[in-house]
Design a protein that fits this description.
The complex is a heterotrimer of chains A (about 230), B (about 375) and C (about 170).
Chain A (H helix, E strand, L loop, with lengths): L7 H7 L10 H7 L3 H24 L9 H23 L1 H7 L10 H11 L4 H31 L1 E5 L6 E6 L13 H44 L1
Antiparallel strand pairs in A: 1-2
Helix pairs in contact in A: 3-4, 3-6, 3-7, 4-5, 4-6, 6-7
Chain B lengths: L16 H27 L1 H30 L3 H8 L1 H10 L7 H13 L15 H12 L14 H8 L7 H9 L3 H7 L11 H13 L6 H20 L5 H8 L3 H8 L10 H21 L5 H20 L7 H35 L16
Helix pairs in contact in B: 1-2, 1-4, 1-10, 2-3, 2-4, 2-5, 4-5, 4-6, 5-6, 6-15, 8-9, 10-13, 11-12, 11-13, 11-14, 11-16, 14-15, 14-16
Chain C lengths: L1 H47 L5 E4 L8 E7 L2 E10 L2 E12 L4 E9 L12 H7 L15 H21 L2
Antiparallel strand pairs in C: 1-2, 2-3, 3-4, 4-5
Classes of the chains: A mainly alpha (about 230), B mainly alpha (about 375), C alpha+beta (about 170).
Chain lengths: ~230, ~375, ~170
């Protein structure tokens, strides 16, 4: 029986690091108040993840097993600090709005988790691919939540180029008095995250039920075919 | 022959859930009728219309939300689900806690939050941890506190005046008399023809409704009794330490939705403990939090948040107080008495602290700062 | 034993390389960061006195609330940090004392106050009630936001006292 491998889009939902593996949640809850923040954080996490995967994978043969966690943490922390300095210098508005959450990327479970689970055991190319998939999943997650939260809490969406501060778009759909401030606050973050996680879990459940059903039918068909052949 | 299966405790009151909810609705309707009269007498037909619109909006939102949930999330028969889920009671209680000039949109948002996050997500009627009306109200007061319908007339409520101008301490009896006479004295406060949250002003009527509902076994009489009694004792201790007369605890009882919360919200059988000792501890804890939040917290009202906080503690209370009540009566008496005495001690300490703080600020007098008295209506 | 030495050595090498990378990045960016800070400072000062030159002054401060003092063409600008409802140093604001004896401007740089309540200290109503008043005149508290507005008024009083003692 052959199992149909899920497409890239499907795996973004089924194996999403945030909604399936429940990793890296704290940065999402804290930062997803606007699209600017979401894109900035997703880019930061992706870059740090990519480079940490590459470095960890390059030195995986010479890293002694006993101290691999401190080594990974030093690597990740260095990368994040360098990134933070660059953001502070060239994208001060992003730095002001993301604040301490930039430093928190050091303890983002996705990065350390993927370094341990994938990069330390595979070659560089596989690690890069893994970083891309996980980064894409993280981006989907944080983007979805920010879209919902920014729409409900400010009435529209806005996005500005972080380097030049030029506004790229600024749409206002709901008038001011109908915006729900709840969603701009941590309460709204938890509520949105919980409901979205339930949605993703439901989709995963349906998908697995369908797969199980298909497997059962395939098995029954194979048994019938075998009986036929006898 | 009808077999009734309950999780223990097995002492059954004899009426079904539907009957209980119907009796509750009747009680709520009586209070609603009074508030209609109150608004008509005080401010005219414009307010009455707004009140009815708020109530209709709340109930309609609740029913529609539950219909949608039943149809698309649970995929069961919607109408039957809504009938057995009693969402409109939540909506009515929520609207009763609003000030009369709240706009409609926050009521709708609050009701959706109350029904979905306060009740349905936990598993529907009977499985919720928090009082759903209180949860919705908390959202409205935190995020829509300044959203007011423009053309509805109202005036300052007793709780907002005493907390804004006096910080809940009125030592001079003459000032106290003048303050109370604004509302017709303590008697006027009890009858309820003044402005406050919609369903909370008529303390006398609420007490009557509470007694009637207890007699027909719709609500448990023990919780309101212990709650109101504890509020009286705790606020009396605080008032006595600060040199205020007997009017102070009575004031605490009659204003700010204490009686409404006691009769309709604390008695919600889903969210309070099942054992007698548990209920008593629950009531005393809620009373303590109510008085503390009112006199020391900067939140608009103490009843709401005390209910939510005690709901959180119910599983722990249950664990401590569960068991055959009459067998271990010494243990349970000890638990309740200790809780009560701890509350008294705490109120005494808080009173002394406030006294010292007042003495301090009187010495370093703030000149040059005028208090601008604007009529902000918060409850 | 030898293994432990090797582990420590490996970790030390990794840490050294990391330190080197950090120093390199720091050198590359620190000028830009300093320039950014100066630009935001200037931008804030320009809110009070647009187009003016500013000179940062040394000062002694007993109250602990004064962050910095600047001399502008038309007066003096004080940057204050007070403890509002949001905790220590939760409100940072700038206030300009003009040579004409009136408060030239007031702007809140950052506020950790409650949205809709304490945040009123940054809103137009309160700003207009402060700007244009004579230096040392009384300022009304915002009803319902007494803790936050009292904190701001305390800061303004401290700045006024320092101004009158030193520069009047």
């Amino acid at each position: 029986m052959e199992e149909k491998k899920p497409s890239f889009l499907q795996s973004l939902i089924l194996e999403n690091p945030v909604f399936s593996l429940y990793l890296g949640i704290c940065s999402i809850l804290g930062v997803s108040t606007s699209l600017d923040n979401a894109v900035g954080m997703a880019a930061l996490v992706f870059l740090v993840l990519l480079f940490s995967n590459i470095v960890v994978s390059l030195i995986r043969k010479i890293t002694p097993g006993e101290i691999r966690i401190p080594v990974y943490i030093v690597i990740i922390a260095t990368l994040v600090s360098v990134a933070e300095m660059f953001i502070k210098a060239y994208m001060p508005s992003l730095y002001a709005s993301m604040g301490s959450f930039i430093s928190l990327v050091v303890v983002n479970c996705i990065i350390l988790g993927r370094a341990e689970a994938c990069a330390s055991k595979n070659d560089v190319l596989t690690s890069i691919k893994d970083a891309c998939v996980m980064g894409a999943g993280y981006f989907v997650a944080i983007f979805t939540i920010s879209v919902i939260r920014q729409f409900l809490s400010t009435g529209g969406w806005s996005f500005a180029n972080p380097l030049t501060l030029k506004t790229i778009f600024d749409i206002k759909i709901i008038p001011e008095q109908f915006t729900i401030g709840l969603f701009g606050k941590p309460v709204g973050a938890f509520v949105t995250f919980g409901l979205l996680a339930a949605l993703f879990a439901g989709y995963k459940q349906n998908h697995e039920a369908k797969l199980a059903q298909a497997a059962k039918e395939a098995k029954a068909a194979a048994a019938a075919a075998a009986k036929e052949a006898k | 022959m009808k077999f009734v299966f309950n999780p223990s405790p097995n002492y059954h009151s004899g009426s079904s859930t539907r009957e209980i909810m119907n009796e509750l609705s009747c009680g709520l309707l009586a209070v609603f009728a009074f508030s209609v009269v109150n608004q008509a007498v005080q401010h005219g037909i414009g307010n009455v219309i707004h009140l009815c619109v708020m109530m209709a909006a709340g109930v309609a939102t609740a029913i529609l939300t539950e219909l949608a949930w039943a149809k698309w999330v649970l995929k069961t028969e919607p109408v039957a689900y809504v009938k057995s889920s009693f969402g409109w009671i939540t909506a009515i209680i929520l609207v009763m806690m609003m000030p009369i000039n709240m706009s409609i949109y926050p009521v709708i948002v609050g009701t959706i939050f109350a029904i979905v996050i306060g009740k349905l997500v936990f598993g529907g009627f009977g499985s919720n941890i928090f009082n759903p009306a209180a949860a919705g109200c908390a959202v409205i007061f935190s995020y829509f506190s300044t959203s007011r319908a423009a053309d509805i007339v109202t005036s300052a409520t007793p709780t907002s005046l005493i907390s804004g101008s006096f910080g809940w301490v009125v030592s001079d009896p003459a000032v106290a008399n003048q303050f109370l006479s604004q509302f017709g004295g303590l008697g006027g406060l009890a009858v309820g023809f003044y402005d406050g949250s919609i369903g909370e002003t008529c303390a006398l009527l609420l007490l009557v409704v509470g007694v009637v509902l207890s007699v027909v076994d719709c609500i448990d009489w023990r919780i309101p009794t212990f709650y109101l009694g504890a509020i009286f004792v705790f606020s009396w201790i605080y008032g006595a330490v600060l040199g205020m007369g007997m009017w102070y605890p009575v004031f605490h009882l009659l204003t700010g939705g204490a009686v409404f919360g006691a009769v309709f919200m604390l008695t919600d059988p889903v969210t309070n403990p099942t054992t007698f000792a548990g209920k008593v501890v629950f009531s005393i804890g809620a009373a303590l939090l109510t008085v503390l939040i009112r006199v020391r917290g900067s939140l608009p009202e103490g009843v709401l948040y005390s209910i939510l906080l005690m709901n959180m503690l119910v599983p722990w209370i249950e664990r401590v107080c569960s068991g055959i009540q009459y067998k271990d009566i010494k243990k349970y008496t000890l638990i309740t008495v200790v809780t009560f005495l701890a509350g008294c001690a705490l109120m005494f300490g808080v009173g002394i602290a406030k006294k010292n703080q007042l003495a301090e600020t009187a010495v370093t007098a703030n000149n040059n700062i005028a208090v601008v008295e604007t009529m902000t209506v918060t409850e | 034993m030898k293994r432990a030495f090797y582990l420590a050595f490996f970790l030390a090498v990794v840490a050294a390389i990391a330190g080197g990378a950090l120093t390199f990045a720091n050198d590359m960016t620190k000028d830009q960061i300093a320039a950014n800070k100066a630009a935001t400072e200037k931008a804030n000062l320009e809110i009070i006195y647009p187009g003016s030159d500013f000179e940062k002054l040394d000062f002694t401060d007993d109250t602990g609330m004064i962050v910095s003092v600047y001399k502008a063409n038309e007066g003096y600008v004080y940057q204050m940090s007070t403890d509002g409802f949001g905790g220590k140093g939760s409100i940072e604001f700038m206030i300009g004392f003009g040579t004409d004896g009136k408060i030239s401007g007031y702007t809140v740089l950052s506020s950790g106050e409650t949205q809709g309540i304490g945040s009123k200290v940054a809103e137009a109503d309160f700003v207009s009630s402060v700007t244009g008043k004579d230096i040392g005149a009384s300022i009304d508290i915002i009803s319902g936001a007494s803790v936050s507005s009292r904190a701001v008024i305390k800061g303004i009083d401290a700045a006024t006292a320092h101004y009158e003692a030193n520069y009047k």
